[in-house]
Amino acid sequence: MKGIVAFDSKYGNTKHVAEAIAEEIETLGHEVILVSIAHTLKFDDDADFILIGSPTRMARMTFRTKMFIRRARKKYAGKPGAAFETSLRAPEDPEARAKMSKWIDDAAGAKIKRMAEEGGIIMFDEILKAEVVDTYGPLMPKTLNRSREFARRFIESLEKK
Ligand SMILES: Cc1cc2nc3c(=O)[nH]c(=O)nc-3n(C[C@H](O)[C@H](O)[C@H](O)COP(=O)(O)O)c2cc1C
Fold first, then answer.
1. Max alpha carbon distance in the chain (Å)?
2. What atom in ligand 1 is closest to the CA of residue 104?
3. Which fold has domain 2-159?
4. Residue ranges in the chain whose pLDDT is less than 70
5. Cα 103–chain centre separation
6. Rounded Cα–Cα distance for residues 72 and 43 (Å)
7. Which of 93, 116, 131, 144 has its CA 20 to 30 A from that of 83?
8. Distance in Å, CA 105 to ligand 1 centroid
9. Share in percent of the chain as helix, strand, coil (round to 5)
């Protein structure tokens, strides 16, 4: 199969996650086209599946990602997809977490999934939430491993169909 891994990224964290996902999919024997949304809204429209990722900004995906999905869903309706995001590490203390809830729950990944689904892309149930230690990064330890595992589960879900 051939797939697209599209991402937006300002400080590089979401790019690292996208690269790890792409590498894993290639390791599994598939062709991958990495698309940096910051550089182009154009994409290959004959791939078999599409993954879309964005940093979380004010609990949303970036505007560019929104523009990208608007185009992608015309071409990828009826095809499988998956969403990933980077976002701030959730505090362990439940009270502190509750205070941050509106910034970290229903964040970029959930919104990407909804918007893509509304356009007919058949989205993988699981959303990869990759956390950063601080506002500009770095990624939390083991995040790239989690990203690869997510990619593997997504591909396995396609192979079962
Ligand atoms: C202006 C700004 C707003 C942000 N808002 C949120 C937010 O609402 N929720 C969240 O979890 N992280 C938020 N973050 C942290 C970003 O998710 C983090 O910078 C992002 O993962 C970095 O991705 P990138 O390196 O690919 O640009 C914000 C960061 C910036 C700079």
1. 47
2. 11
3. Rossmann fold (3.40.50)
4. none
5. 17
6. 8
7. 93
8. 13
9. 40, 25, 35
| Neighbour tally for 63: CB within 10 Å | 11
Claim: this prediction has a pTM higher than 0.70? yes
Please identify, by atom number, the ligand 1 atom nearest to the C-alpha of residue 56.
17
The tokens for 2 are 């051939």
Burial 70-80 (b: 16+ CB within 10 A, else e): eebbebbeebb
Structure tokens at 52: 């879309």
| Domain ranges across the chain | 2-159
Q: Using an 8 Å Cβ cutoff, are 105 and 86 in contact?
A: no
Q: Residues 104-141: pLDDT tens digits? A: 999 999 999 999 999 999 999 999 999 999 999 999 99
How far apart are alpha carbons 36 and 67 in whole angstroms? 13
Residue of minimum CA distance from atom 31 in ligand 1: 135
